[in-house]
Amino acid sequence: MPRVVVDVMPKADLLDPQGKAVYGALSRLGLGGVRGVRQGKRFELDLEGQLSEDRLVDLHRVAETLLSNPVIEDFVVRVEQP
Amino acid sequence: MRVGVVTFPGSLDDVDARRAVRLAGADAVPLWHGTDELAGVDAVVLPGGFSYGDYLRCGAIARFSPVMGAVTSAARRGMPVLGICNGFQILCESNLLPGALVRNDSRRFVCRDQGLRIENTATAWTSAYTLREEVTLVLKNGEGGYVANAATLQRLEDEGRVVARYLGDNPNGSMREIAGICNERGNVVGLMPHPEHAVNDLCGPGTDGSRFFTSVLSAVVAA
What we know:
The complex is a heterodimer.
Chain A: E1 3-10, H1 17-28, E2 41-46, H2 53-67, E3 73-81
Antiparallel strand pairs in A: 1-2, 1-3
Chain B: E1 2-7, H1 14-24, E2 27-32, E3 43-46, H2 66-76, E4 81-84, H3 86-93, E5 100-102, E6 110-118, E7 134-141, E8 145-147, H4 150-158, E9 162-166, E10 178-182, E11 188-191, H5 210-222
Parallel strand pairs in B: 1-2, 1-3, 3-4, 4-11
Antiparallel strand pairs in B: 5-8, 6-7, 6-9, 9-10, 10-11
Helix pairs in contact in B: 1-5
């Protein structure tokens, strides 16, 4: 079964309060050597049937309109299992 | 004069918004998120709350609801639309307003009486205010930080489309202390604080919010 993964991350130049909170927790746990943490989202789309170029174009559109907000987030679409 | 107030699953302030509409002297018409019919209303309020549980992003799922298809077309034709708090988030997600609202920089939910300066009185929802008038409304949000890229911010400033700005300490990290903006035509306004919670002296910080709802009455009569 084909699986497509969409990773969505807050844009690099925007403050990421969630990542900042996680970063604060890491230092309280005594974990050194971490310069920063950013928190994003991962979507796994399990598809029925065959993956085609046309379907990938559709998935790209969905990633851009629903799964991410291009004003504040960047996304990457990748095929995990063809 | 009929003002529709949309109820999404998870809306919280639809009842207060309908009450504010009635106190202003208009008929409040409940609109369900699953309808694509606006029941002949003259204006629409998208109320605060947590539509669809704020899943995915605030307003992201509401944007694709049947009622928002109808609201978006009506707004593009010039119908007055006011998005309050979650409604503002929905308007940004729908691309009816530029920019986006992100988690407060303080990482805390903010709930307080908030001073604002009204900076645009040419919109359908603010004509009853005086330019640069200072008012107090209720602010309550977890994701109220207004962000946009530099070009968009400049354009908003140059075109006078910042409708209201926070006074005093920035409550949520909004760029340029922006509390509310409008579209080019001034019929669509998004506002993070809640005017519908400031329409009665008994409950709330006064009645400074009432004129958002009386403004739209004259906008519709004039149209």
